[in-house]
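EI: anyone free to look at a 210-residue chain?
SC: sure, send it
EI:
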Amino acid sequence: MRLYLASTSPARLATLRAAGIEPVVVPSQVDEDAAVAAAELERGHVLEPAEMVLLLARAKAEAVIAPEIDGLVLGGDSAFVLDGVTYGKPHEPRIARDRWLTQRGRTGELFSGHWLMHVSGGDVINAVGEVAVAGVTFASDITDAELDAYIDSGEPLQVAGAFTIDSLGGPFIERIDGDPSTVIGVSLPTVRRLANKLGVFWPDLWNRDR
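SC: here you go
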């Protein structure tokens, strides 16, 4: 059974590889803002964080369906919430710095949406989704100079919440409450549960030499 990853995230790819899975990477091209706006118009309310990440995870997975795909297709999306405000990727250094000044020494929640489909010949046989949530506590003694250096690295600009735990941002995180891989963007326990729901034995996905 092959796993297709509808994402170009190096962190998601590395996490799956560490778990013994070499996925087929199939980049998805989804206009996230447009997808969220359309869903909010249809549903008549602003999407909650869990709704949003699950919607986008599904959109990304469905966007890569093609006749040559046979196996499991995984889509994912993440968002960070602090004080009831949902934060995606900051993209700009100024925005990233403002966020870090706000979240320094505090705790927020990282929402990670997962959508897993069993696809055969381009046809969806079955699909399941789930959202994982983990608490993230940032160190209170991070200096402004450290923040500036981290932002100058470029890493926080393209990740939800402007931080990572598996790379340069790791030393600035004091505590994770929940599954750490959730914060990376693909909760391994969640994906295993979803695979089981689709009738797939998790070890059957192991295809990397250890």
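EI: The chain has a mean pLDDT of 95.
SC: 👍
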